[in-house]
Specification:
The protein is mostly helical and about 60 residues long. The chain contains one helix and no strands. The longest helix is centred in the middle third of the chain and has 13 residues. The protein is elongated, with a radius of gyration of 22 Å. About 5% of the residues are buried.
């Protein structure tokens, strides 16, 4: 398996990366928000899709 950051062979100690440096580069990308799952924006005023806030009855 090759390192997803630089393409060198992965090292077991830093799997799936080749070095601590590449692992830190990846972590930095996560922390800065460079990796994201695409999604559609949510309209905060549209509550029609939210579940009801009515509490369910307690069992006796």
């Amino acid at each position: 398996m090759s390192c997803p950051i630089c393409g060198k062979d992965a090292v077991k100690a830093y799997h799936p990366f080749c070095s601590r440096r590449c692992a830190d580069v990846d972590l930095g990308r996560w922390l800065k928000g460079a990796y994201a799952i695409p999604a559609e924006p949510v309209d905060d005023d549209d509550t029609s899709s939210l579940p009801s806030a009515t509490p369910s009855p307690k069992p006796h």
